[in-house]
Amino acid sequence: MFCSNNGIRRSPSSSANIINLASLLLLAIIFMSGKMVFCDDTTPIPTDAGGVNGWFSTNVKPAADRKGGLDPTLAAAEESPQVIKVRKDGSGDFSKISDAINSIPSGNTKRVIIWIGAGEYVEKIKIEAAKPFITFYGSPDAMPTISYSGTAYQYGTVDSASLIVDSDYFMAANIIIKNSAPKPDGVTKGAQAAALRISGTKAAFYKVRMIGFQDTLCDDKGYHFYKDCYIEGTVDFIFGRAKSLYVNTQLHVLGDTGMTVITAQARDTTTEDCGYSFVHGQITGVGTGAYLGRAWMASPRVIFSYTTMSSVINPAGWYNNMKPERDYVRRMFTLQNTSVLALEQIHLGV
């Protein structure tokens, strides 16, 4: 299991390149196999943040070393990956990300790495369910930005996202995903604006920055893994009913004149097998009084373990969404001196 009743700290405030790229991505591939991601109680994530990468390296081996343990479909897909270059200056295979995706046939069975050059790509992108095994990769030294200004008024909340991924086995590394719509003013109808919606299963995100205000990340459904990411927003900026693990991920709250809430996890019954687990992360931001989550649906499940929290967080932790009958979910967050304890447990093994 990834976490149990662990305390949370609170603080004040070219070719060779392609080969290296493939090696990096192979390391991440195992994120998407439940068997590889799951860690039992004999080797839990360490309490010391400094030990996380060592734990990760020990428990999460490159796909090349774990062929016998991977999902056979995934293992076959990784045998001969294809690389497509997208460059704004026209020096790549395509100058638009959407064109690169359109070049991939439906029913694709091989990993396709879309290597995206620096710059801002103003596109609304959707990867259909029939196109699995797609990777978005950007240089860590020149991270590209996917940006669009779609709103809920135009598309509906979940379809307002700048990037929508309905396919399985998606990966992204070193990418900025942004919704550039204005900050909701509390008056304008349908001002919510998602940056990313991930609805396919067995997805992994590494050093991805997600930028928006209300509803930044629709962590919609499926099994998802996030490591070393950054997510910012105002209200419900991580929402949905996926089953996701966030490791060493920074959540940045943007101060608001109204209510600020990080999570709106959408589990509606106690039998639904979904929830969010945040381990060794950091909560930063401006303003005060932000809630860790709210009871958007009847039985949300959210756990924070070994997470540093600035004074931006309301000590109450949880908001019942003006539904007193949902007050029982407060059991998930208990304030004891300077520690917040997660009183439920979550398993993310497939």
TrEMBL record:
The lineage of its organism: Eukaryota, Viridiplantae, Streptophyta, Embryophyta, Tracheophyta. Residues 1-39 form the signal peptide. Its EC number is 3.1.1.11. Belongs to the pectinesterase family. It catalyses: [(1->4)-alpha-D-galacturonosyl methyl ester](n) + n H2O = [(1->4)-alpha-D-galacturonosyl](n) + n methanol + n H(+). It comes from the Eukaryota. Keywords: Aspartyl esterase, Hydrolase, Signal. Pfam families: Pectinesterase. Residues 85-320 form the Pectinesterase catalytic domain. SUPFAM superfamilies: Pectin lyase-like. Coiled coil: none annotated. InterPro entries: Pectin_lyas_fold (IPR012334), Pectin_lyase_fold/virulence (IPR011050), Pectinesterase_Asp_AS (IPR033131), Pectinesterase_cat (IPR000070). It comes from Acer saccharum. This is Pectinesterase. The active site is at D236. Pathway: Glycan metabolism; pectin degradation; 2-dehydro-3-deoxy-D-gluconate from pectin: step 1/5. One of its GO terms (molecular function) is pectinesterase activity. One of its GO terms (biological process) is cell wall modification.
